[in-house]
Write a structure and sequence with these properties.
Blueprint: H1 7-42, E1 45-51, E2 54-61, E3 66-70, H2 81-89, E4 93-97, H3 114-128, E5 133-138, H4 140-151, E6 156-162, H5 173-180, H6 187-197, H7 217-223, H8 229-232, E7 240-245, H9 258-263, E8 267-272, H10 284-296
Parallel strand pairs: 3-4, 3-5, 5-6, 6-7, 7-8
Antiparallel strand pairs: 1-2, 2-4
Length: about 300
């Protein structure tokens, strides 16, 4: 008869417990590795997409439904660093494709148009956004977002037009933009242009002395005219959030509802207090909350 207290008997009794403990440790290690991989995927990183003759440099962060942020005239997607972090914290995957000629984005510039830029956005949504996204276009970026909605409707859940100008630009704004974005102009003249056309009283315009791509001004100006605004401005497939600064000289008070008057109940107008045309660096929390709350309520 085997001694119940013999070493062999003790090992046989403990072996199931050891196996269960080992399995638990391995499971914990696996879960930790998965969580680490998920955290790495959620952290801000860059992806280079090859799409035909184009290379699209996309800044990616967060996890959840996709939001695509599109920058304003002559500026790149790094303007959205703060906003992207806030939106990622609200439970979104935030995608920031750099416009062609900015960051590491490359592609033919001859014949560049809003349709070509929209096709870059569409590729980003298909390959990184799960095939469907809310597009957030700031100023010039809303041209691209609206054309993407018109030409690629199956990919677009909604469009946020952030700091969109009136359909007819108010006098003096284009001239102020030209001075503000020109690094050869005097610093004080540029600051004056920024205060006039982009930043409300109490907002700091100095960070926007940097970050411009003036060499691309002409090519993007020409691209912004094709297709004609007459074709895309009165059309939308997706719901629209018209996000306006209450002190934006590009969007006088009398034009607050001009988009809603044309597109009807598809448009929600939301005004951000204490903001001008730059909008996002002026009131990032208010902008993030408005976008996140509206996007969360959209059908998937």
């Amino acid at each position: 008869m085997t001694d119940p207290y013999s070493p062999a008997r003790s090992i046989r009794l403990r072996r199931p417990h050891l196996m269960r403990s080992l399995a638990a440790v391995l499971a914990m290690a696996f879960c930790g590795a998965v969580q680490a991989a998920g955290a790495l995927n959620e952290a801000r990183h860059r992806v280079l997409l090859q799409e035909g003759s184009a290379q699209i440099d996309v800044i990616v962060e967060g996890r959840g439904p996709a939001l695509v942020l599109l920058p304003s005239s002559q500026r790149d997607s790094e303007d959205f660093d703060g906003l992207a972090a806030l939106l990622a914290m609200r439970g979104f995957t935030v995608l920031r494709p750099q416009p062609r000629g900015m960051g590491a984005s490359r592609g033919p510039m001859e014949g560049l148009s809003l349709s070509v830029l929209a096709s870059d956005v569409a590729a980003t949504v298909r390959r990184l956004g799960g095939g469907r996204a809310v597009l957030v276009g700031h100023a010039y970026g809303h041209f691209v977002a609206r054309v993407a909605d018109m030409e690629h409707p199956a990919l677009v859940r909604g469009v946020v037009v952030a700091g969109a100008a009136a359909r007819t630009f108010p006098a003096g704004m284009v001239e102020a933009l030209a001075v503000a974005s020109d690094p050869t102009k005097a610093r004080e003249d540029r600051l004056q242009g920024l205060r006039l056309a982009f930043f409300a009283p109490g907002s700091d315009p100095e960070p926007w002395l940097n970050g411009w791509h003036p060499a691309l001004r002409d090519v993007y100006r020409k691209a912004g005219a094709v297709p004609s605004k007459d074709l895309w401005w009165p059309v939308t497939n997706a719901p629209v959030l018209d996000l306006q600064g209450d002190q934006d000289p590009w969007r006088p008070a009398g034009t607050r509802n001009e988009l809603k008057d044309v597109l009807g109940d598809k448009v929600t107008v939301h005004t951000v207090r204490g903001a001008s045309h730059a909008l996002i660096p002026e009131q990032p929390l208010a902008v993030a909350d408005a976008i996140a709350d509206w996007a969360a309520a959209l059908p998937r």
